[in-house]
Amino acid sequence: MKKKKKKMKLNNRSVAWLVIGLSIIAFRQQLDDFEYFVVVVVAYNYTLYEPSINLIHKTCNHSDDYSLCVTILESDDRSLTATNGSTLAWLMLTFTQNKATQTLAEVKQILKKEEQSMSPETKRSFTTCNDVYELAIQFYIPAAMTAVSNTISFVDGRKEASDAFNLFQTCGRELFESVGTGLVEQDTLLDRVKFETHLTSLALDIMYGLY
Asked: Is 64 in contact with 205 (CB distance < 8 Å)?
């Protein structure tokens, strides 16, 4: 009785390793020892992190700004071991939190430095930004991060992130209405607020893909 030959099945990773291995062998003579070591390490890391990289691109493909989404997530080494979308949402929220904290520090600095020379309208705008940013940073973004990291409720996480988004928008409107008051820092600050509003939107895009 003839034994049936087993067909060898190659998945995408096996094929990738095969191609990379053959390429390394083909160019081995053209590389010195250090260059050869670097190539092997890069090839190994690529195949090791390939599932997480694919997850990042798949997740960001559903966002409003694919390129920015991928750039931000891949800039954090923790994304390279991500196995689910909730981790990526948490990382995006963390990035947003860090940027917003820097902006709040700038708002406080401007208030401290320029408060006496500000018009009542401008002072109101900066005070509003200070207050809403403190709310977003201290309560809403951390609550959203907790919700997605513990998978307590993605619905609750989206609500908290949406509230943070609205708070950033409030600051942006206030600053936009008082543009042209002579504060050089204000235009730059408005751009930062717009950026953080956009970051929160990207986090929401990721979170809406969670179930």
From this structure: yes
Cβ contacts of 9 within 8 Å, gap of 6 or more: none
The dihedral built from the CA positions of residue 39, 41, 42 and 43, taken in this order, carries a sign that is positive
> Among residues 105, 74, 106, 73, which one has the least CA distance to residue 90?
73
The tokens describing 1, both together, are 């009785």
Tracing tokens 């160019």 back to the chain, one arrives at 27
The H-or-E segment that residue 62 falls in is: none
Q: Three-state DSSP class for 75? A: coil
- What are the structure tokens assigned to 132, written together? 């809403």
Cβ 58 vs Cβ 50: under 8 Å: no
| Spatial CA neighbour of 111 closest among 90, 136, 133, 139 | 133
The domains located in the chain, with CATH, are 12-60 (no CATH), 73-207 (1.20.140.40)
Please give the average per-residue pLDDT across 160-183, as a whole number.
84
Tell me the per-residue pLDDT of 66-104, one tens digit each, with 9 for 90 and over.
999 999 999 988 888 888 889 999 999 999 999 999 999
Task: State residue 92's pLDDT score.
Answer: 96
In the structure, what pLDDT confidence band is assigned to residue 17 with cuts at 50, 70 and 90? very low
Q: What is the pLDDT of residue 26?
A: 54
- Say which residue the tokens 């309208």 belong to: 121
Encoding tokens for residue 120? 């009542």
If phi > 0 it is left, if psi is from -120 to 50 it is alpha, else beta; for residue 186 that is alpha
